[in-house]
Specification:
By secondary structure, the protein is an alpha/beta fold. Helix content is 40%, strand content 15%. The chain starts with 10 loop residues before the first helix and ends with a helix.
Length: 291
Amino acid sequence: MWASAEVPDLAELSRRSPQRAGDIAFRNFCEPHRSERREAGHTFLVRRARRFLRDARQLAVPSPHGDIPVYVFEPEAKTPRATVLVAHGWTAEASFMTLFGERLRHMGARAVLLDAPAHGKCKRTRASLVDYTQSVLRVAEAFQPDYALAHSMGCFAVLHAGGGGPPFRRKYDFKRYVLIGPPNEFGRITREFADARNMTPTARGTFERHLERIAHRSLGSFTATQLLRAADRPALLLHARDDFEVPISNSEDIAKACPAAQLIPFDGMGHRKILSSPQVVRAAVGFLLKE
């Protein structure tokens, strides 16, 4: 269930002033707290999930745009067998990924979870996917993780960090990826966002040009497939067949185009319940640590 957020109808404004409608859409797109895709009962879910961060070491990684909240699950062994960066989806936060952190810690690895800009305990209120990638790069440089594990839009952030390219001059070499419910085409996300607001094609074009401006690339070139090819590393894709928010066809397309990508489908888990599945957690950690 998604929250009953009010979705503005931009149909009339799109006809009268497509530039103004595009500006409003871009501003709303960068405000995850206003997203209609945030789960119903989000506040309750956050309050419950944050209890599971009690075993994590909480700290902050500095960045030019403010501190990045980070939660580190340390194994009992003095020397972790590996370090894994864990990235959550849009409108979520690090606490939603704690089952993976606990499993990694139990298996002798260090798990580094972060709150994306404008998510969780991060003090920012607006952010873009470029900002999220910047945070991933900062945290990766601070903790030197071996692998990356991500959900939904977080998959774009870790793949962008690993594949490199505009607007960044650097990248981070993750050795393996676990991608849970990953979208493939960023342009499809923006089309769905615009369609939900009844925007005209001209107004949608204005909205999308804002995103292309900050990304220094076309939306058509921003796909998980191209980013994974650029990273040139093995990936495990975990996706529910009944994911109606990000259909499994996204992972099927990625796996078809990337020989090093393996897809494992699941049933009855949707887009978010999949994060609380023990078998999904075991599959993810097993791929990274080669159990």
